[in-house]
Recover the amino acids of this structure.
């Protein structure tokens, strides 16, 4: 009864600010979990939890040496985390910055967006049939100016013919990545950072690793066409999915790009529904 009375008093004393505080902290922990999921940091978190669990146990059992080692491990571990997981920390801060200060894509209307995606899809389909390797990066909220500076600036309209021509074998720009911003091909022949993820299929070549690398450090959508098999792949948020058809690729591009384009025109309730669909689709 005393315990029940304690909980009832506690509940009665909860204010709106307490609820807000709990909600904010819960959201922060959820975002940290999402960012760490299926990365090296996830395994690190499990190790930290195990150490924190063992410290009081070793103290209770008077295991002095073990307790001393575990405490020192936690102390030194904080600095080690910053050094070892610098890429993950950087990606988390960039993700936070994108969420807080994101700018909208500059597109005049939905018809323009439809035409843009159609031109990209037609080029990708033709390149796939000819088994011509391609790497197309569609910029989203994260700016890719540092990547663009490594290639040849074009500032040309996105057309099927131009995209196909860029990736013709033995031409100066075919080996690098082509960057699309809004409705323009801003640069071609760009160099992308390679992914350091050791779980990537060993059969995948440099083009796929580069696609994963840029998707890990930004929110860009990266389309890859294999020059060996013509298989179409897509890299988003550090994850690679393969064997896309034109229809399947069209569906996911519209889901992501169109959602962001229309986001400012929707009511709050409509935004919540659309983002729920997107999250479920990613899972």
């Amino acid at each position: 009864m005393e315990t029940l009375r304690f909980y009832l008093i506690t509940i009665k004393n909860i204010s709106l600010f307490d609820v807000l505080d709990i909600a904010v902290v819960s959201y922060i922990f959820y975002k940290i979990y999402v960012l760490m999921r299926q990365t090296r940091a996830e395994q690190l978190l499990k190790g930290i939890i195990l150490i924190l669990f063992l410290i009081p146990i070793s103290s209770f059992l008077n295991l002095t040496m073990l307790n001393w080692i575990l405490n020192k491990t936690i102390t030194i571990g904080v600095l080690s985390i910053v050094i070892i997981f610098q890429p993950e920390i950087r990606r988390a801060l960039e993700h936070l910055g994108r969420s807080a200060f994101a700018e909208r894509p500059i597109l005049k209307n939905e018809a323009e967006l439809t035409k843009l995606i159609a031109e990209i899809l037609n080029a990708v389909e033709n390149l796939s049939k000819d088994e011509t390797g391609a790497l197309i990066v569609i910029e989203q909220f994260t700016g890719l100016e540092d990547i663009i500076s490594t290639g040849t600036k074009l500032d040309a309209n996105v057309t099927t013919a131009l995209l196909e021509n860029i990736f013709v074998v033995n031409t100066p720009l075919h080996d690098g990545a082509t960057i699309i911003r809004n409705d323009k091909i801003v640069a071609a022949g760009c160099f992308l950072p390679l992914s350091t993820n050791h779980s990537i299929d060993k059969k995948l070549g440099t083009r796929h690793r580069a696609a994963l690398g840029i998707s890990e450090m930004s929110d860009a959508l990266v389309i890859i066409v294999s020059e060996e098999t013509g298989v179409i792949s897509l890299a988003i948020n550090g994850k690679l999915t393969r064997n896309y058809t034109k229809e399947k690729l069209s569906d996911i591009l519209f889901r992501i790009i169109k959602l962001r384009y229309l986001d400012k025109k929707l009511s709050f309730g409509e935004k919540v529904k659309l983002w729920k669909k997107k999250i479920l689709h990613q899972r």
